[in-house]
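Board work, copied verbatim: Peptidase S1 domain-containing protein
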Amino acid sequence: MWVTVLALLVASVGAESGHWNEKVLGGATASDGKFPFTASLQDANNKHYCTAAIISKKCIISNAACSITAQANNFRIVVGASKLSAGGTVYQIGSIVKPATYNETSFLHNIAVIKPTKDIVFNDKIKPIRLTNKITPPRTSVTYTGWGMTKYPDTTMSDTLQYISLVIQEGKDCDSGTVPGYPNERKLCTATAPGVGLCKGDLGGPLIEANSLVGVSSTLYECAQGNPDTYEDIFSWRDWIRSQCDIPFCI
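↓ predict structure ↓
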């Protein structure tokens, strides 16, 4: 059964406020400061529900479904904390920008820029990640980082940032009825063995390669059941992102 972005968000927002969202299935725990660009979108009860990435002092990036929910519910951005219960620096959401072509039913072009109400202050644990300047071809080794479920359908909780090594797949490996909107020139895809992959809490998070942002988690089919996960391809969105965030083209 297709687990939509909306269903995952509803489950996350409605979860018991005393629990932290879970981690990447089959992932490893990130050391403090290992991924200083990773951000947590949290509700009024300090509950993580989606992941994001800092791309400049004025912008973070996530998927559109996460961002719209965050803005509508007056959620906040937390940066600088691999262990969420340890705190971090809090920023309020000022505005979001999504593509005019975003489709909330099919999740086509599911990407958005979130602008805090004030500039993000950088330090050793809070840094932006640069946008990729090249196409990400199949068989590229990549890393995903985020806060998501450790087991499925169990709800083993962790408040520590997780990461997992993945490989970009050929289009034919993701071109099926289980992946709405794929193939698409603006999407990337990863597929793993059962028990490994993304789940609730991971949506909107960064896919990286060689210290560059190459993807943003868009949709996933169930949770680590051996099915493909898809990402918005940052290279194809790079000009649009830069136009929204005033990021120099030399970066």
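Residues 234-245 form the longest helix (12 residues).
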